Amino acid sequence: MFRARTLALGFPLLTAFSCSSAPVAAPPAGWLAPAGLPAEDVILLAAGEPVNLPDSPQTLTAPEAVTLALRHSPLLQADLARLRAAMAEAEQTHLLPNPLLTVALRLPEAGGGAEWDLGLSGALTSLLNRPGRQRAADARVHAAAATALETAFAEMEATRIAHARAVEQEALVPLRLRQEEIAMEILRRTRQRRSAGEAGTSEERGAEHAAARATAEANRAHVAARAARLELSARIGSPGGAADWSLTPVGLPGPLLTDEDWIRAAAERNPSVERARWLALAEQEEAAIAGAIVREGLEAGAVAEKEAEWSAGPAISVPIPIFDDGTSRRHLAAAEATTAAHLLVAAQRSAQAETRAFWEGFRAALSRREDLLKREIPPLVALLETAKSAALAGEVSPADVLRAEDALLTARASALLVELEAHLAFARLLRSAGGLPQTHQPAAR
Prior knowledge:
This protein has 445 residues and is mostly helical. It has ten helices and six strands. The relative contact order is 0.14.
């Protein structure tokens, strides 16, 4: 006796699901452009790069440093690999489930012909849940892309800060060295005056303290400049490199937009907000799937059997929800969706708060720099010229000229440090706002 039983999914149903599926979502074109690079310039490497990359440039500008940092960032590479994994998972949700073929052979005890059972089955549940699974997986692809973009902005921020710090610290070194020379010269003249009985011990001790402090500041400037170069070298993929490139300063843009404009840009383009938004959407889709009436293990198809003659008919396999009615899964999915919704609000608030804070810091640094350059330094320049003229006329001592020059150098050093603060605040503002608005163009320094 030959008996064949088949439990299979209807091919028209399979075809309908296959035709209605959308292609796997991919990151939008130019998704890395706000970070300074087109997407095609950032390639996922199959293996890790060498610890120290060769061929460092002779001259390193801030845009070149950012480009090198983004191309060779292992953290960005790891996020790109996670993005590829998310795309692979999304591709998996767009595939039809494989049918299960079952073959059973039974030999009657009394002898005679063997009886065969053939079964071809497939899970109907996966087909019914397929659209929601696809939307959830596609949302996670966008979330992974936003995570990679967030890492790119963090790398860009750190590299811009390292470059600005290296430029400003190196510009500070000659000022500190000149102040050390001035302090040593004042100390020498003070000792000469004390030997002549024209200065007391307290004045000499004060000059000695000023000279020691100037020497410490000069040494600190040297160490800070070298440390900034080493940090920048590590950022571009060469922590053991010579870091002997020539650095090109970068200008600061003016406050062309208001804080509301920056906050609006952060709400629209901040990568952490985008990631939270897509994850919230994915959790909503998962909650909708968990709340559906469709049960796990639901199967449908047809059964055919042949004994004396063929007989066929529809068949359905439905799990009986005696022990598990899906309530726990629905509660879990709803809780995760609620968590994602709250995290989205937290990301939006954090982006708005830090963007406002960075904007205020950037504007304050620009204002302070403007005051130094236009209100404090010019009078000190005039004072130095006046002191020089008075010294030639014998009205003041050469030490007074040196003190006037030291005051001018202190103001110029303050201007450099304030400019560094502005660079740091602006780099953080770029990350928080999701990139530089098109209306902003860096001004010449």
